[in-house]
Design a protein that fits this description.
single chain, mainly alpha, 7 helices, elongated
Length: 198
C-alpha cells in the first residue's frame, strides 16, 4: 500500500530504492533538457500531473505504513493510490515535455511497460504477504475487496476517526514531490516561452 512511510526511527535507504530515485530524477533532467515544450503542452500535462499529485497528497496524509492497516481516504478505492498518482505524474511530465521525433511517447510506453510488466507484479507478490503477516484476516478482507490500482466503485468501510493529517503528509515527505513538480513545471514553462521567442 504505497511507497511512502511515516518513519518512527531513522531508516537507511536501500540501494535499489536510491538507484530508482536517481534514475527517475535523471530521466526528468533529460526530459526537461531535451524537450520542446509549448505553453499548451505544459498546461495540458500539468493538469494530468497535478491530478496525480493531489491523489498522492491525499494518500500521504492517511498513510502510516506498517503501523496500521490504512483503509481511509483513497485507500478505500485502491490499495496503491501512491502508485496510481505516480503514473499520472509520469504521464503528465511526458505530455509537458515533448521530445524531438515524438520520442516522449516512446519514453511513456517504456515507463508503462516497466511499471505494469515488472514493478507492479513484483509489488503484488511481495507486499500482500508482508501485510497479511502484519494484519492477518483484516488485511485479507481488505485485499479481496479493494483493487490493486484502478479505483473500484464501492468504497471500503472507513474506520471511525480516520482522517487526513498534515503531520502524516510531512512525515511521508510528500511536500518534496509537490515542490519538485512545481519546479519542473516552471522550468518547462520558461523553456516554452524561450523557445517561442526564438
Amino acid at each position: 500500500m504505497g511507497e511512502a512511510a511515516e518513519p518512527t526511527a531513522p531508516r537507511r535507504a536501500r540501494p535499489a530504492s536510491v538507484a530508482r530515485k536517481v534514475a527517475l530524477w535523471a530521466l526528468v533532467v533529460v526530459l526537461v533538457a531535451l524537450s520542446r515544450p509549448t505553453p499548451a503542452t505544459v498546461t495540458a500535462g500539468f493538469v494530468v500531473a497535478a491530478a496525480g499529485e493531489l491523489l498522492r497528497a491525499w494518500a500521504a496524509g492517511h498513510l502510516r505504513k506498517t503501523v496500521e492497516l490504512v483503509t481511509s481516504g483513497p485507500y478505500r478505492y485502491t490499495r496503491n493510490p501512491l502508485y496510481l498518482g505516480r503514473l499520472l505524474i509520469f504521464t503528465g511530465l511526458c505530455l509537458m515535455a515533448p521530445l524531438p521525433y515524438s520520442l516522449h511517447w516512446a519514453v511513456l510506453a517504456a515507463g508503462y511497460g516497466l511499471f505494469f510488466g515488472y514493478y507492479l507484479p513484483r509489488k503484488e507478490r511481495v507486499e500482500p504477504a508482508r501485510l497479511f503477516e502484519a494484519h492477518g484476516d483484516e488485511y485479507a478482507r481488505y485485499h479481496d475487496a479493494v483493487p490493486a490500482l484502478l479505483p473500484g466503485r464501492s468504497p471500503y468501510p472507513e474506520r471511525p476517526g480516520a482522517g487526513w493529517s498534515s503531520d502524516r503528509f510531512i512525515a511521508n515527505r510528500e511536500h518534496w514531490m509537490v515542490l519538485g513538480l512545481l519546479l519542473v513545471t516552471l522550468l518547462l514553462l520558461y523553456r516554452a516561452y524561450r523557445l517561442g521567442a526564438i
